[in-house]
C-alpha cells in the first residue's frame, strides 16, 4: 500500500470515528505511520482529505450500481440485485453510513458538494437516468406501472438502510433477540425487492398485483 493509500485509509477511520470537526491530523498521521507534513504535502488540508475520502467511497458505490442497472437482464433481476447490493454495502460499511448521517445532521453541505463534483467530473454517473430508461422500457412493453424512477430509487435506498440505522430500536419494537436480528437482516434484501416489484410491475390477469 502506498503512502497516499495508507493516509486515506487512516483518514477514513478517523473521520468515521470523529467526523470532520473532531478528526485530528495527528491521529491520522499516527494511524498511517506518516507525519503531518507528509499528509499536508499530499492533501493540503484536513477538509480536502475529508472530501476525497467521501468521494472515493461514493465513486465505488456508483460504479457498482451502474454495473447492475446497465446489465442486460430482466427488470426483476436488476431490482433484486440492487436490493442485495445496498443491504450488503450498508451492512459491511456501517461506519460510512454513520459518517453520512452525521454529515447530513449538520446540513450536508460538504456531502452535497462532493457528490456534485463527483457526478460533474465523471459524466457516466447517471444511474438514475439508466434506471428511468429500464422502467420506461417495461412501461412500453406494458409490464410496468407508471412509476417515478426517483421515488423508486429513494425507496430502495431508504428501505435498505433503515434496519441497520435503527437496529437497536427495531430489536425492541419487533421483539428480536440477537440471533433473530441477524436472520432478519439477512432477509431484508428479498423483502425489499418483493415490495418494490409488487409496486412496479403490473398485475397479471388473474394475479394479485
UniProtKB/TrEMBL annotation:
Record-annotated HTH tetR-type domain positions: 1-61
Residue ranges for the DNA-binding region feature of this UniProt entry: 24-43
Record GO terms (molecular function): DNA binding
Keyword DNA-binding: yes
Keywords per UniProt: DNA-binding
InterPro entries in UniProt: Homeodomain-like_sf, HTH-type_TetR-like_transc_reg, HTH_TetR, NicS_C, Tet_transcr_reg_TetR-rel_C_sf
4Fe-4S keyword on record: no
PROSITE patterns: HTH_TETR_2
Name of this protein: HTH tetR-type domain-containing protein
Organism: Candidatus Glassbacteria bacterium RIFCSPLOWO2_12_FULL_58_11
Amino acid at each position: 500500500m502506498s503512502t497516499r493509500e495508507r493516509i486515506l485509509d487512516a483518514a477514513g477511520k478517523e473521520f468515521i470515528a470523529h467526523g470532520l470537526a473532531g478528526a485530528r491530523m495527528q491521529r491520522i498521521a499516527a494511524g498511517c505511520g506518516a507525519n503531518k507534513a507528509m499528509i499536508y504535502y499530499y492533501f493540503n488540508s484536513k477538509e480536502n482529505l475529508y472530501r476525497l475520502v467521501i468521494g472515493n467511497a461514493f465513486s465505488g458505490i456508483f460504479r457498482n450500481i451502474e454495473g447492475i442497472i446497465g446489465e442486460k437482464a430482466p427488470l426483476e433481476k436488476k431490482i433484486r440485485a440492487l436490493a442485495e447490493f445496498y443491504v450488503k454495502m450498508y451492512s459491511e460499511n456501517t461506519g460510512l453510513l454513520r459518517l453520512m448521517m452525521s454529515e447530513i445532521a449538520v446540513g450536508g453541505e460538504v456531502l452535497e458538494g462532493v457528490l456534485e463534483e463527483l457526478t460533474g467530473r465523471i459524466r457516466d454517473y447517471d444511474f438514475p437516468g439508466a434506471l428511468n430508461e429500464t422502467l420506461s422500457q417495461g412501461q412500453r412493453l406494458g409490464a410496468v406501472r407508471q412509476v417515478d424512477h426517483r421515488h423508486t430509487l429513494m425507496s430502495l435506498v431508504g428501505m435498505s438502510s433503515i434496519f441497520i440505522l435503527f437496529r437497536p430500536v427495531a430489536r425492541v419494537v419487533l421483539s428480536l433477540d440477537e440471533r433473530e436480528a441477524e436472520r432478519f437482516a439477512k432477509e431484508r434484501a428479498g423483502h425489499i425487492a418483493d415490495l418494490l416489484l409488487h409496486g412496479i410491475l403490473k398485475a397479471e390477469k388473474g394475479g394479485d398485483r
